[in-house]
Specification:
Layout lengths: L16 E3 L5 E3 L3 E2 L5 H14 L3 E3 L7 H11 L7 E6 L8 H15 L11 E6 L6 H16 L3 E7 L3 H6 L7 E5 L7 H10 L2 E5 L7 H4 L2 H10 L3 H12 L2 E2 L6 H6 L10 H8 L18
Helix pairs in contact: 1-2, 3-4, 8-9
Family: Belongs to the aldo/keto reductase family.
Organism: Cutaneotrichosporon spelunceum
Protein name: NADP-dependent oxidoreductase domain-containing protein
Amino acid sequence: MLTSAVGNATRLSLESTVRLRSGATMPVIGYGVYQARGDDCKNGVKVALQCGYRHIDSAQAYHNETLVGAGVANSGVPRSKVFITTKFMPGHTVPTDDEVFDQLVKSTRRFTPNAPKPPEGHLDLLLIHAPRPNEEARAVHWKALQRAQKEGWARDIGVSNFGVKHLRALPEPLPAVNQIELHPWCQQRDIVRYCQEKGIVVQAYCPIVRADPKRLGDPVVVKIAEKHGKKAPQVLIRWSLQKGYVPLPKSVTPGRIAANIDVFDFELDAEDMAALDSLDEGSEGACSWNPVDSP
């Protein structure tokens, strides 16, 4: 597990990893591909890997799993060196575990179409994208993910957008990861606390608040950025890292892709961290879909 203490932040590097339940390791920063389409997606993944990212986060709902696979193949970086995540998107009814499993296999094959069977065709992490529609369905989804892991389609399994009540009701085993919206304005502290108590790695999506000019121009963020000679997004990503989260910044612009990973040559001090912590607006601070309070 990654230590979140600010005093240990200088140990972080581009090569830093967190250990998951399977014993496998996951890079501490990932490249997100939400809304990335066509050549923007393929080229974004290629550029990200060439810049040093080794962790790509996709999802069925992004409709770009095949594009991500193509970007990895074109990058020159061996697939074995890249950590790939995708997410199963639940519907509004309770499926059978066979139906969910079939969807998981289809997703896995999209990334590596020429290696459709495990172990060559495995993914590193499969997540349930949201806790909908109810507890019965979540149990079915989780059973299917466990089967995918047992049969070798996924090395680790986890969830996304799960609140504490969803995590508590989920059948064993505990998920390896919970991916939630996290940044200084939406800190979801109860979920983070529960995950850290249970050894569930916390991934942070929207770590740079979708580059919202209002947020990036917040005087607190601007002051800290100027202090360290960095850009506002870099400060926010660094905050996530020092919190012990695994941030997943997203951009399709090569310069920004590179800048978002240039966060290992400075450290936020205790005063910086406290100032950013003070910005929390609770659920009102979310900038995206945030279904952690779903039934």
